[in-house]
């Protein structure tokens, strides 16, 4: 994250330096374009307080227009950016700092983008297309969201592509997920052994509760979303991080696969390791998922490990381990899932963290409700021996 913040502020400074010289003379012009082609753009521009802008669409076709605002942008204090469908109904009104977003215009005839200037500068730019609703993000980390769509007939399909650099994997966490109807599929590489990067990672079609985090074992992940336009839906907001390949993954824990991540040894600086371990639905009925802390050696107080009870970055926290935590503690998940994050800063390392995640037989209530019998004891012994991963 620290690296991302730096990158982001450098980008902002760069934008300001680049565009501030162009502003006054060209701003009025840039503000009054009528778009008549099937593709076009508003170049990324810093808009000084002063002129209001209106961009109009006057296309020869009646196809929907897909607008993609560029990462990252900001609408200044008192300013507002509004997208209006051809019937003059607002599709989206944006204020303040923004990550990126897609908007869909279904009535292109006389559709407009209006910018009401404010008391401080704004900067933004967009591209539009009439052929494809898509967004590609290739930053270290970013937030994506379902498109802004008008209430209309028909449906819209949008594709999101997340690209990370060669040393990382995209790890996606949903903060908002609220649909009444949609189809949504997430594709990527399902496991290190898979030969394809088009595996179905998760079919979220029809799901209404917040999904667990999703990781692709490749540098790309794509999300295919189809929304009916008949009623307004909140949709999704998700953020992704570029996580370290050496120590991140999502694993189903079977009967004989206790495992640990990340590798134990001298860990690197600037790691962002994320992992999720889960029991499948059958396993969950008979077993709890437990995590045993075998050993912990961290370089400084800024290297930390967070464990959540659940499958998401937004699940409730079980614990945070810092330097000085003693080994031996056992965590038990109430959800059959454990989510973890190991982050290291730019100095000092240690041997790391060594833990075992494994299914543990659940106590069964016998006829006498006071008598607890632990099932599968010999089985659990076997599990304890079934080893794992070389150091
Ligand atoms: C539309 O395309 C033509 C030819 O490619 C170009 O000259 C013109 O500037 C474009 N108009 C707009 C508003 O982008
Ligand atoms: C811009 O629009 C706002 C809101 O309609 C208005 O109050 C303001 O006077 C306009 N500014 C200019 C320079 O036209
Ligand atoms: C829209 O484009 C047509 C030509 O395709 C032109 O005749 C008309 O004047 C334009 N309308 C506006 C409002 O610019
Ligand atoms: C687009 O559709 C509207 C309403 O159906 C119609 O009035 C208009 O003539 C159409 N425009 C074009 C360019 O086909
Ligand atoms: C678009 O605007 C033009 C000019 O104001 C008007 O003649 C035309 O009827 C409008 N089209 C629609 C579909 O509202
Ligand atoms: C990432 O991998 C691609 C394809 O293998 C390669 O072309 C590219 O040079 C690599 N980039 C880096 C920074 O290693
Ligand atoms: C996802 O689930 C929906 C509904 O069950 C189904 O129609 C769709 O084909 C599935 N997608 C894939 C890629 O399997
Ligand atoms: C769950 O995992 C167990 C152990 O690996 C396996 O035997 C079982 O078939 C799995 N069930 C489902 C529904 O995947
Ligand atoms: C970790 O670093 C220490 C001190 O530099 C070194 O003695 C040890 O061999 C290293 N261990 C591994 C697993 O690399």
Task: Give the helices and strands, then pairings.
Elements: H1 2-19, H2 23-30, E1 34-35, E2 39-47, E3 53-57, E4 65-69, E5 73-75, E6 80-84, E7 90-94, E8 96-98, E9 101-105, E10 112-116, E11 122-129, E12 133-137, E13 141-145, E14 155-163, E15 168-178, E16 183-188, E17 199-203, E18 214-215, E19 220-228, E20 235-244, E21 249-252, E22 272-278, H3 281-286, E23 287-297, E24 304-309, E25 317-321, E26 330-332, E27 337-343, E28 352-361, E29 363-365, E30 372-374, H4 377-385
Parallel strand pairs: 1-3, 12-14, 21-22
Antiparallel strand pairs: 2-11, 3-10, 4-9, 4-11, 5-8, 6-7, 6-10, 13-20, 14-19, 15-18, 15-20, 16-17, 16-19, 22-27, 23-26, 23-28, 24-25, 24-27, 29-30
One 2-acetamido-2-deoxy-beta-D-glucopyranose (NAG) binds at residues 60, 62, 109.
Please give a handful of descriptors for the protein shown.
single chain, 391 residues, mainly beta, Jelly Rolls, five-stranded mixed β-sheet, 4 helices
**Could you tell me the radius of gyration in angstroms?**
25 Å
Question: How large a portion of the residues is in β-strands, by DSSP E?
Answer: over 45%
First-residue to last-residue Cα separation? 28 Å
CATH topological fold name of the largest domain: Jelly Rolls
Class from helix and strand fractions:
mainly beta
Low-confidence stretches: 1-25, 365-391
Total beta strand runs: 30
Count the DSSP helices: 4
CATH class of the largest domain: Mainly Beta
In the sheet with the most strands, the strands line up as: 1-3-10-6-7
> What profile does the largest beta sheet have?
5 strands, mixed
Helix content: 10-25%
Give me the CATH architecture of the largest domain, please: Sandwich
